[in-house]
Amino acid sequence: MCDEATAPWLQLTLEAIDHAVEQLEDALLQAGALAVTLEDGGDQPVLEPAPGETPLWAHTRVTGLFDAQTDIEVVKRQLRRFLHVATLPECRLTALEERDWVRAWMDNFHPMRFGQRLWICPTAQTPPAPDAVNIRLDPGLAFGTGTHPTTALCLEWLDGADLG
Predict the structure, then answer these.
(1) Options 3.30.70.120, 3.40.50.720, 3.40.50.2000, 3.30.1360.120; which CATH number does 9-98 get?
(2) Burial letters for 38-64: b for 16+ Cβ neighbours within 10 Å, e otherwise?
(3) Residues 6+ apart with CB under 8 A from 68
């Protein structure tokens, strides 16, 4: 049974096994979800899939985002009807407060060093090594912040490259 809550946004999270994920995702969207998120419900990495494959985890957490005016009991009835089940999988209802999510993410982004002397620094922060090569760049606004492994590898290569 889900807990009831009131807030600007509501997240209804259900646990699904692999064969029911797409059905659950479709059911949430048909029930009025504004967005649906799939997350690893266990600790199972999804490695490089073969061409044409879209693998999911054996245990997937499926979350639907609803506005605060949504009657979650109606949503749960619609989900049971769409999925042809008497009871839903384990679920959780949580309140999601209104936030500037871009700013919240950027507040947690700190300068990152690549190689020996290259730093990517958000514009609102002081570079930790003023004499290094400091690239002032806000995360998520341009390519190259270094959070993706291939970008980090390219930045490390650039740091070691003889460009002179």
Answers:
(1) 3.30.70.120
(2) beebeeeeeeeeeeeeeebbeebbbbb
(3) 6, 7, 8, 9, 10
In three-state secondary structure terms, 48 is: coil
Enter the tokens of residue 96: 């999601």
Sheet containing 9-17: order of strands: 35-40, 59-67, 9-17, 91-96
Largest CA distance in the chain: 70
Total-model pTM: 0.61
Q: Where are the domains of the chain?
A: 9-98, 104-160
Task: Look up residue 113 and give its amino acid.
Answer: R
User: What is the chain's pLDDT, residue by residue, as a tens digit (164 residues)?
Assistant: 444 444 689 999 999 876 688 999 999 999 999 999 998 888 777 777 778 777 777 788 999 999 999 999 999 999 999 999 999 888 899 998 877 766 777 777 889 999 999 999 988 889 999 999 999 887 766 666 777 888 889 889 999 998 77
